[in-house]
User: Fold this.
Amino acid sequence: MTSDIKITVELDDNRVPEKLFWSAQDGGVVQEESKAMMLSFWDSKVQETMRIDLWTKDMPVDEMKKFFHQSLVAMADTFQRATDDEKMADTMKDFCDYFAEKMELKKEE
Assistant:
């Protein structure tokens, strides 16, 4: 059995992303538009992370700050589930709170 996740990137003449779409039919997602994405893969052979970070040219900076904050919070949660290291996960969450404070995100939420 396989499950596919598809990412479509529409580029302008300078190859800058104008639109991002993603589909995951097993999750009921079909051509959902997005303004930004971060995708990471672990290469066990070379012990390195391979990444794809894309955002559209019309991604607002205030939304990018929220996107980063929410991604950091999700990474802290995933880290805790994957490693069962509650102490470090809490430290990561403290940084997320600090990040939100410095980006002045808390008063918007």
